[in-house]
Each structure stands twice: as structure tokens, then as C-alpha cells.
Here is the input.
Amino acid sequence: MCGTGRDTVGSVPPAAPGDGPRIPGRRPGIPWEDGGVTGTLVLAGTPIGDIADAPPRLAEELAGADVVAAEDTRRLRRLTQALGVTPKGRVVSYFEGNESARTPELVQELLGGARVLLVTDAGMPSVSDPGYRLVAAAVAQDVRVTAVPGPSAVLTALALSGLPVDRFCFEGFLPRKAGERLSRLREVAGERRTLVYFEAPHRLDDTLAAMAEVFGADRRAAVCRELTKTYEEVRRGPLAELARWAAEGVRGEITVVVEGAPETGPEELGAEELVRRVRVREEAGERRKEAIAAVAAEAGLPKRVVFDAVVAAKRATG
Here is the structure.
């Protein structure tokens, strides 16, 4: 028996009476050490704005799952209504506040053979959203974990940014407190890969100003707002310029993409820049000796060159 066009894992046996709907690509459970059969955990991507971006398999999984774990059950209700589907299984909440307590319960469902579908408010579960704990717990019990790929604010913003996309890293949300935020930024000040962040609109101006301070005012960046929604906007420019723009007030869901640190040779770094890099590391808690050694290694210079620059700067300021 041939599978459907989307079912690339092989044929799907006919459903027995009372088994419920068959999901294309759905496999039987796998044995576990106590002699039972495990179910399957499915991570499903949901639209980040436009409901039309929902993958077709999302509706099929929502209809056929034994348990649907949702970050917000009210948003799930709006989603299912928009997709014209009614979940046949049990619907439970799964959010940051109950993630630790709810995970063992869902693992037991999986060990009992259930198909558990995990959805968050927008995008892929586990990416700055609930899901990691459940995936880790399922993997630890040899439960099969699969996904329904869907929209991602990280990849969408990266693609629209106009910045290099061959190498990047996702940093999630920065700390709310100013000091902790600066420390986190200083940790990646020399990172050459493109950086992607999520940020709340009311903190955006402070975050961009902190980035300009640590990364440099002229470092290129893009602020992606309300992606795939009616008022989608991508603002590109130097960090200092973007910080001034954000100070006027910004609304909506925000993803910030920042260009990586430039690759500079020994001859391109002046004494002032060497001193600035040492100071950034010292403010992050490093001892001066270690900071000088790290900056020298980054710049491809002898430690003595960086040390002399720091000493000269100290003398110049009295």
C-alpha cells in the first residue's frame, strides 16, 4: 500500500474500529523496557502572525492527537476555530508557570502510548517558548519525538534583515535589568556570527542603546516588527540610529538582528579600540591580566602591545 504524497515514511495500515483518525506519517509506538509501547511527542509550529501560514499538517495533528498541550488554551481555541478543526483529544495547558509540574504527567501519557501534540502561542515550541523540558524528558524515556515544521520569527527576521545569514546564533531575550543586560552583551561583543534577539517593545530603546554602547554605534542591525502581520515593518541601520528611532515608542512583537563583529587584522586595530575592548571585559568581571590576554588573542597581537596601550591610556587620563 502506497503512502500519501506527504507520507514519506512508508505505508499506513488501516485504522481498526475505534482507533480514531489516522495521521499521515504517524507511526506505531516503540517498545520500552517495561514491556509497554510508547506514544509520540509532536512539536508543531503555529503562525507568528498570518493564520494562512499554518502548515496543513497542523490541522490534522490538532484533530487526531490524544492530548493537545497548549501554552494558552484560549489562543488555541481561536486557532482551531480559524482552521475549522475540533480537537478530539484532551486539551491541557502547558506554560512556563506549570511546565515543571505538567511534564511528568505528559510523559506518563506518552509512555502509555498517547500521541501528545505540543503547541505554543506562535512559532516553534522550545524556541524561547515552553517545550525543552518535555522534549528532554521524552528523550530520556526513549519516546519518539517529531515535529510539524512551521513559521519561525528567528529565521524570518534573519532572512529579511539584509545581514549575513551563513552563520548566526540565537540569543533569545536579554535580561530585564540594565547591569545584567550589559554583562550578557559583553559576553558576545567579539562574536562574529550574526546575532538574533527577541525583545519587548517597551524595552527596545534601552536594549538598542546598550547594544550601541557594547558593540559600537555603527554596528549594523535590523529591527523586525509584527512579522507577517498587517503592520509588518523592518527598520535597518546603525545601532545608534535605531536606538534614537525606538526612543519615540514602538509597538508590537520585536525581533532584533545584529551584524557580527568585524574581522580585523592586527594592523586595523588602534590603541583606542584595544583599550575599549579591555575595558568592556573588565566591566564584565574579568581581571585586567586576563582581559588583556583575551583581547590580544582576538586581535592576533602580542600581549605586550595591548598592555602598552592600556598603560598609555591610563597615563593620558591622569
Q: What stands out?
A: The chain is about 40% helix and 15% strand. The radius of gyration is 25 Å.
